[in-house]
């Protein structure tokens, strides 16, 4: 994983992020082996990975399943690149980090600059700074879906 954030307390007024090495996480299942019907919801994180993962056909299949089944989906920051590539946000209202607003438009969604936006089974957030309201909403959606 890669950590990226605007350098704190910098004398330079950065408008881009600085990247540093993050944690290593061993995958337990490949996208091609995921059976999405076995899961209650989908969380799509941000960071740099979505820029590369959005080309994986199995991941896009998984994403489409959750939207077709209308199960809860949470997307934060650059994760919008994946749902846009999957073609599942057309006609929706979403939020993300400002520099990904174009990905919203290219996916047919309306971008708004708010901490979180709920549109049907989808909740989106700008960045990890919005995690408290974002995760509260996603957990409520999962609980409601279980009945």
Write a compact overview of the structure shown.
The chain has helices at 50-53, 57-68, 80-85, 101-106, 131-146, and strands at 2-5, 18-21, 42-44, 73-76, 93-94, 110-111, 116-119, 122-125.
Characteristics:
two-stranded antiparallel ribbon; 5 helices; four-stranded mixed beta sheet; alpha/beta; single chain; Rossmann fold; 8 strands; about 150 residues
Topology:
Blueprint (H helix, E strand, L loop, with lengths): L1 E4 L12 E4 L20 E3 L5 H4 L3 H12 L4 E4 L3 H6 L7 E2 L6 H6 L3 E2 L4 E4 L2 E4 L5 H16 L1
Parallel strand pairs: 3-4, 4-8, 5-6
Antiparallel strand pairs: 1-2, 7-8
Q: Any idea how many domains?
A: 1
Rg over CA atoms, rounded to whole Å, is 15 Å
Strand arrangement within the widest β-sheet reads: 3-4-8-7
Q: How is the biggest beta sheet arranged?
A: 4 strands, mixed
Helix-strand sequence: EEEHHEHEHEEEH
CATH topology, which one?
Rossmann fold
CATH homologous superfamily identity: Class I glutamine amidotransferase (GATase) domain
Number of helices: 5
Low-confidence stretches: none
Helix percentage range: 25-40%
Shape: globular
Distance between the termini: 35 Å
At the first level of CATH, the class is Alpha Beta
Report the average pLDDT across residues. 92
Per CATH, the architecture is: 3-Layer(aba) Sandwich
Based on helices, strands and strand pairing, what is the structural class? alpha/beta
> What's the β-strand tally?
8
Our estimate of the beta-strand percent is 15-25%
């Amino acid at each position: 994983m890669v950590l990226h954030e605007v350098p704190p307390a910098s004398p330079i007024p950065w408008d881009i992020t600085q990247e540093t090495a993050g944690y290593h996480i061993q995958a337990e299942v490949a996208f091609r082996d995921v059976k999405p019907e076995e899961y209650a919801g989908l969380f799509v994180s941000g960071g740099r990975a979505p820029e590369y993962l959005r080309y994986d056909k199995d991941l896009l299949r998984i994403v489409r399943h959750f939207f077709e089944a209308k199960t809860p989906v949470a997307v934060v920051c650059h994760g919008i690149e994946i749902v846009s590539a999957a073609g599942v946000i057309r006609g929706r209202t979403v939020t993300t980090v400002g520099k990904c607003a174009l990905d919203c438009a290219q996916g047919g969604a309306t971008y708004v600059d708010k901490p979180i936006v709920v549109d049907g089974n989808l909740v989106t957030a700008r960045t990890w700074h919005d995690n408290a309201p974002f995760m509260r909403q996603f957990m409520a959606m999962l609980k409601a879906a279980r009945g």
